[in-house]
Amino acid sequence: MFYKKNLLVFFLLAFVNMFAQQNNLQLFTVDDGLPSNIIFDIHQDKTGYLWIATEKGLVKFDGDDFTQINKQKTTNLTTKNNTIYAGLENGLLIKEHSKEVFLASKKVLKTFIFNDIIFVGTEEGVYKIYKNHIETIKINTEINKSSINDIIFVYNAFYVATNKGLWKLNRLENPSKIEKINNNYIISLANFQNEIIVATLKNGIKTINANAIEKTISFQENITSVKKLKNEIWVTSNKNGIEIFTLPSFSFKQKINKYNSLKTDEINTVFKDNQNTIWIATNKGLYQLKNDNYNNSNNKKPVIYFENLLVNNRKVDSLLNSKIAINFSPSENNISIYFKTVDLINPKKIKYRYQLIDGFSAWSTNNSVQFANLNAGRYTFKIQSKIDKEESKIKSFSFKIDAPFYKKTTYILAAIALLLFIAYLILDFYIRNLNKKNKEKIDTLKLENHLLSLEQKALQLQMNPHFIFNVLNGIKALGNSGKTTELNTTISQFSVLLRSILNNSRKEEISLKEEIESLKNYIELEQKMSSKTFEYKIITNLNNIDAEEILIPTMLVQPFIENAIKHGFQANTKGIITISFDVKYHFLNCSIIDNGIGIDQSKKGKSNSNHNSLALKVSKERITHISNKSSFTINEIVENSMIKGTKVWFKIPLKTDF
User: Fold this and answer.
1) Cis peptide leading into 330, omega within 30 of 0?
2) Residue 8 has what pLDDT?
3) Residue 162 confidence (pLDDT)
4) From the CB of residue 592, how many other CB atoms can be counted at a distance below 10 Å?
5) What is the 3-state secondary structure (H, E, C) of 172-207?
6) What pLDDT score was predicted for residue 651?
7) According to the model, what pLDDT value does residue 133 have?
8) 30 phi, psi to nearest 5 deg
9) What is the chain's Cα-based Rg?
10) What is the DSSP code string of 517-561?
11) Do the Cβ atoms of 234 and 267 come closer than 8 Å?
């Protein structure tokens, strides 16, 4: 009878315990947002996010939403502050805020951090992260070829769990002491006081003290992990659910499996978060086992963290950790700030408020704020969160937006100085330009005056009194001899020549046709009056341009012809004068060729050379002053060392009246 009563009480207590567990258990599956129901590992970062390694990628959970980070199978996790180390089939993913780094390696089974050095246990030895790449650590041949399932550091020694046994090392890099203390397939390690708790694949849970097997506390097989959760040891397996042992006695406390609360016995690991909630990773989803008195957690003040900072839609969240004010350029004035308080039990009760310029905003559930087109100046952004009536401490960070350069005092002073300097340069340029124009006007007037003087001299030279005297004497002689017809012709030619000279003297330019007609009259008069016999010919090659359309300065060619007749020809030799006008490359070329004694010899024989020397000089100056592109030459013609005459040549820019 007594036995039946005790049995009834036992079943009643078991039922109450199972009912309580079921009330505190919540299952999350793909229906709730998980990418897969197969959960391998669970960890929590400093902000409070729960990080979940699943068959189909890494997931972040804030108590309300699951956010998938990647889609690669993730088997194990380690966190340090807000940096996540996720073990993948082909390497290690390191995530810190928005920054992600992937390091390729063998399949990662464990990540272990010691003195800020990151060690990676793989299916083939231990590696170390060095300058953003993974390099092998050589320990010994057996460890280097083993699967590294777990690493812990206790009692000034490293314990390395492998598929070929348990090893004790005085250090991981270049160890001087290496000792193998167990030959079993070791899955997971934990420690309590002076004992190391060792989970084997097929030989249960053992405790080791002073390198000797002290006792076996469980014969459970297919163990997946062993975890110390406060004063308890939780042993998970992929066939028998969870066994819980009480510390320090290691006495059995209870089982959690599909017969009392779970839907599966395939358990991969367990994890206790910062609110004492236990999370169970299974092949059927993620379980949340709330603490019996979890409501008391509301008495804790929430903690708020800055998450991301965007400047002009560019992530610069690393600046949030700056201890000094952040400086932004004038164009970097569109700022978005993201912040977060994570409460895995009460995610929907979290509210936020912020302050930038005036007072705090109203409380809301928004965990981000955007500021567009902020003015230049110094700012301090403050943020606070609350859950129910419990408010977090205020967090803040300061930043400064520089004023545009054109609003800075130094720029304004420099601009004023520059404007004054520019004004000075403009005034100086204006004065210089005015002086230059005045000088150009003066030079132009001087040149015009000089050209006018040259033209007047040319006119005077063409109206040579000696030539006129000879013509008049010739006319008189013709009259006395009774040669009336020849007399009339000579008088007509002479009058036409005088009229053309007088008419043309009032013009700057005349047509080439008029110039040629004047030259013909002059040369034919010279033929009649001169004691020297000579012939002439005028050749034109004007590229189909009418001579009447080509303009030439007045009285330009005659002095050279006069010089040839007076001083080039000898009385006993028949002279020839060839006058050519050619149009080439937009220039009018003129040449006067005679077969006289040569220019140098004629200069020596001149009894009165003042008139002709002056005529040549004036004509040359007139040609060179027409344009800076004009050219003039006068040379003797030499053949076989004999002087055959003189060639005068010049070119002036072609000018037409159309």
Assistant:
1) no
2) 46
3) 94
4) 22
5) CCCCCCEEEEECCCEEEEEEECCEEEEEECCCCEEE
6) 94
7) 86
8) -60, -25
9) 57
10) HHHHHHHHHHHHH-SS-EEEEEEEE-TT--TTTBEEETT-SHHHH
11) no
437, two tokens: 């124009």
Task: Say if residues 522 and 573 touch (Cβ distance below 8 Å).
Answer: no
Q: For the chain, which residues score pLDDT lower than 50?
A: 1-20, 22, 296-298, 460-461
Structure tokens given for 108: 């990662």
Size of the chain in residues: 658
Q: Could you give the residue ranges of the DSSP H alpha helices within 555-598?
A: 558-563
pTM: predicted TM-score of the whole model, two decimal places: 0.62
CA-to-CA separations, 581 to 557, 588, 658, in angstroms, rounded? 11, 7, 19
- What would the DSSP string read from start to end of 132-182? TEEEEE---HHHHTS-EEEEEEETTEEEEEETTEEEEES-SSS-S-EEEEE
Per-residue confidence (pLDDT) for residue 14, from 0 to 100? 46
3-state secondary structure of 129: strand
Which of 359, 404, 354, 398 lies closest to 379 in space, CA to CA? 398
Supply the pLDDT for residue 16: 40
Close Cβ partners of 260 (under 8 Å, ≥ 6 residues apart): 14, 17, 18, 21
Q: What domains does the chain contain, in order, with CATH numbers? A: 305-406 (2.60.40.10), 443-653 (3.30.565.10)
Q: Is 229 helix (H, G, I), strand (E, B) or coil?
A: strand
Q: Could you tell me the two tokens for 422?
A: 């520019």
* Beta carbons of 466 and 530 less than 8 angstroms apart: no
Quick one: the chain helix, strand, coil %, rounded to 5? 30, 40, 30
Q: Do strands 242-246 and 251-256 pair parallel, antiparallel, or not at all (unpaired)?
A: antiparallel
Question: What integer pLDDT is reported at residue 489 of this predicted model?
Answer: 79
